[in-house]
Design goal:
Layout lengths: L1 H40 L26 H46 L11 H5 L2 H7 L8 H10 L4 H21 L1 H5 L10 H4 L5 E3 L5 E2 L3 H4 L8 H6 L10 H6 L4 H5 L6 H5 L2 H5 L10 E3 L1 H13 L9 H7 L3 E3 L16 E3 L1 H11 L9 E3 L3 H17 L7 E2 L19 H9 L11 E2 L13 E2 L1
Antiparallel strand pairs: 1-2, 1-3, 4-5, 4-6, 5-9, 7-8
Length: about 450
């Protein structure tokens, strides 16, 4: 009898507790409904998940009716929180719209470039986006905008992209000339007069990159990856976290007041548009502080050109490449009386000779340190050893297919698993060719200076 009474009493307590929980939950739900109604009166309709999860916000998880006094106590904290959410939502919507427009421009640019001669020289995307021609279209107001119509307008502006790149290149050339000759001389030209970029095209012109150890020639410097890619420490300078110091967490913890809501900055298109560069990457040589003239490479190039009997003040890099010369390092020749090996003559191309100078003889750079190889026998032997090096090792080639932009690789003849330009053209494009690859393959401008043919010992 006592056991039965105890069990009934336990069940009664359980039902009472459950009933109390249901009543309290009902009060909480009614309170959240009342809060939503008050928020709606203040102009804050549905704002994502938080509009339906008020129980997670201040004053929302209280099992009591919402009186005027209770509302006044939590009002400004909730209003400031939802105002922050509203502005944050508007900013994200603008970001999505601007990035979508910029992505469409990027695709349009690539389609346009496919019809241009390669290798390409074009302005960085942030420069194109912020040009007067496109900024008025891409930076148009987001609210109520017809994005399809805007993308159509961007596509119609594709014919202006080469002109934008041409203007950017002229400005970049003038800056580089200023590094070589000084800003006064580089800008001393009549209005409308074309810029003379001859000093940039000389074989002796080399620039140093702030971010890497490469000595970069012209026009490679215009497409050098380091100068078109933002580094981690640069990202710190473009942080978007600075501003009013307000946050969603602060909105739910501060005591609140009328000024709290008004202190939240209103997001507008201009503010968001001004952050475009930090989303898309840097402009070329951002802040004009990452390029310098490489005096050591210039000194070595002059010495090598003089040793070849050419004029370093007029010979361009293109003309020197066309000569296809080989030079011999006289400093590596064993001194008289010292027995050398059967092969002790270091022979290499002019650009590899510069690297040899800087790595092996940096304190002894002079024209007397080099000799132009003129013997047909020596040139044939050098070519033979260069080919042997290319056949024996697998090396990465920086050549790209003109048709599909794929990077093709050269490898040993015995290594069938590694693709070369001929096999790529045959497999992918059904083009069988053994010679005259330049019509189908090109080397991007930003290929490293250390390339084939490598230095050999004959």
């Amino acid at each position: 009898m006592q056991l039965c009474l105890s069990r009934r009493l336990h069940y009664w307590h359980t039902r009472q507790a459950d009933q109390k929980k249901r009543e309290m939950q009902s009060l909480r739900e009614m309170r959240c409904v009342a809060i939503r109604e008050r928020l709606r009166e203040e102009g804050y309709d549905s704002l994502g998940k938080w509009y339906w999860r008020l129980d997670k916000l201040p004053g929302g998880n209280v099992a009591a009716p919402l009186t005027d006094a209770a509302w006044d106590k939590i009002k400004f904290r909730l209003l400031s929180f939802f105002e922050f959410q509203r502005q944050d939502s508007r900013e994200k919507e603008m970001i999505r719209a601007f990035q979508s427009r910029a992505s469409h421009l990027d695709r349009t640019l690539r389609l346009k470039l496919e019809k241009e001669p390669k290798p390409w020289i074009y302005a960085p995307l942030p420069t194109i986006v912020n040009s007067d021609t496109l900024a008025t279209v891409i930076g148009r107001a987001v609210e109520g905008a017809d994005e399809i119509q805007i993308n159509t307008e961007i596509t119609h502006l594709k014919d202006r992209l080469p002109k934008i790149s041409k203007t950017w290149r002229a400005e970049a050339d003038e800056y580089l000339l200023g590094l070589l000759t000084g800003p006064t001389k580089s800008s001393a030209r009549a209005d409308g007069e074309a810029l003379d970029a001859t000093p940039l095209e000389l074989a002796t012109t080399f620039f140093g990159c702030h971010w890497c150890t490469e000595a970069v020639s012209y026009p490679r410097i215009l497409m050098h990856e380091c100068l078109r890619t933002r580094r981690q420490d640069q990202d710190a300078d473009h942080s978007d976290t600075e501003g009013s110091g307000f946050s969603a967490q602060k909105a739910t913890t501060d005591e609140g007041g009328p000024d709290m809501v008004h202190s939240i900055p209103t997001v507008n298109e201009r503010q968001v548009w001004n952050k475009m560069s930090s989303w898309l990457g840097p402009t070329w040589n951002e802040a004009h502080k990452f390029i310098s003239v490489d005096e050591e490479f210039t000194k070595s190039a002059k010495a090598i050109i003089q040793a070849c009997g050419e004029n370093p003040n007029t010979l361009t890099a293109e003309a020197l490449n066309d000569l296809n010369i080989r030079v011999e390092c006289m400093r590596c020749v064993p001194p008289p009386g010292k027995r050398g090996t059967a092969r002790s003559r270091h022979v290499m191309s002019w650009n590899m000779a510069i690297l040899h100078d800087l790595y092996m003889h940096v304190d002894d750079i002079s024209a007397e340190g080099w000799r132009l190889v003129t013997s047909e026998t020596d040139l044939a032997r050098a070519k033979e050893y260069e080919d042997k090096i290319l056949r024996k090792i697998t090396v990465k080639s920086y050549e790209r297919c003109r048709i599909c932009e794929a990077t093709v690789r050269s490898a040993s003849i015995d290594q069938d698993s590694v693709e070369n330009p001929q096999s790529h053209l045959s497999k992918v494009h059904k083009i069988n060719i053994t010679t005259e690859l330049q019509d189908y393959v090109y080397v991007p401008l930003d290929a490293p200076m250390k390339a084939f043919p490598r230095a050999v010992i004959i």
